[in-house]
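Before the break, one more example. Copy the sequence into your notebook; we will annotate it together after we see the structure.
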Amino acid sequence: MIKVECFEISCNCYFVTDDKSGVALVVDPGEACPQLEKRIDEFGADKLKYILLTHGHYDHIGNVAAMKRKYPYVKVVIGENEESFTSDGMLNLSMFTGIYVEKFKPDILVKEGIELDFGNEKIRVYETPGHTDGGVCYRIGDVMFTGDTLFYLSMGRTDFPTGSSQKIKESLKKLAELDGNPDIYCGHGDKTTLGFERKNNPYMKDSLL
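Here is what the structure looks like once it is written out:
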């Protein structure tokens, strides 16, 4: 069974485990978090398989390079159209905030329809441009990580470099049309469900018109 633990740092950073398979991953480690590293070490550092990045803004990628040094075998995953954000301070917004983001090189570039193995589960990738052009969402069974594309009753900003209001509308429509009612773990703010957002999120409802 998939278990999700949230660490509220510069964004919602998630530690995801599957006790049955004995594997773990981290979503969007935006800054150093001793509590997260303690939890990883408790579970078993050698069981950490991926760092999944929903997009490349500084508040979601800021601690990737440091984690990669500590856990060198972990695979860093990002959308194929987002790779340049890992080394470009203008794109990842660090240039405008004064927050240093150490450059890193992703191990796996993903695109729509790609599936990654995670124990007995699969991580399915959905391209969801709009907040950034290379943003992606990840679904593992009935759990989905939407980064800054979909929030509780809201959506991500589109006024940053490579953002697009038209593309995020198309991305919200894509998410709304997915099967089932997965739990939604957003990049910021509260957890929600896809079913709730279909019915109540004004931006998602508008995308379906």
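The chain has one domain: 2-207. The two ends are 36 Å apart (CA to CA). Try to locate both features in your own notes.
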